[in-house]
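Page 47, continued from p. 46.
Same chain as before, 237 aa.
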Amino acid sequence: MKRIIIALTLFLQGFAVAYNAGILPYDYINGQAYFLLGLESHRDWHDFGGGSKGQDIVGMQPADFIKNAINTATREFQEESLMVYPSSETKKAIVRASQPNQFGFTKLIHDTKPAAPGDYYLFAVNFENIPDRKGNIGLHSAADFRNRLTQLKNKHGNQWLRHHGAEKIDFVRVRAIDFLQALQEIQNNNINADGSVTIPALSQSVTNVKIWKTFVNLLRRNLPQAQQLVQDIINHQ
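Result:
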């Protein structure tokens, strides 16, 4: 009941979508860091995220903002990654990503400090030690996610997938070092005419991916923070 009242209050105040949040999953292959990206039919490639819903919101005080964002990121990732991982394990990993490491840096990019409604919160989450629903440890390959998508589509159909928020139609890995180079291209304003930026992909079927312009704009607004985050991940920090 509390969340219903909070959500209604936000709606009446014009904050029906109070937060946007997502996950940028990563792991290491032979010591090298890789990110997982997803593709939506009407956009280019980007993270796993979206706008908040009433069920995500626990309060409207500044101390609640990060909790709301964690709830939104957890739910959005569950939907867009085809419910491969238990939400409880995903949420614990996001909470860890929001905490400062020994160098004082978090694995979180957000638009303002202190955080405020309307921000986008991007959590870079290490999936190396996270168990999936079957107990398998680690981040699934892009091929695994594609196979899962095909199985669900054949079993339930596209309408079921849309109803459950499964908006991604393809998955790919990119090297963190190439992602860092893309951030340099953004800094140099060397981007595509449509506002996207291109990154080489680790896939037999996809050679390059275009990072969606809205994702690019988030990174541009927080460029030093994003560059530090990706460099930390490359350095295993």
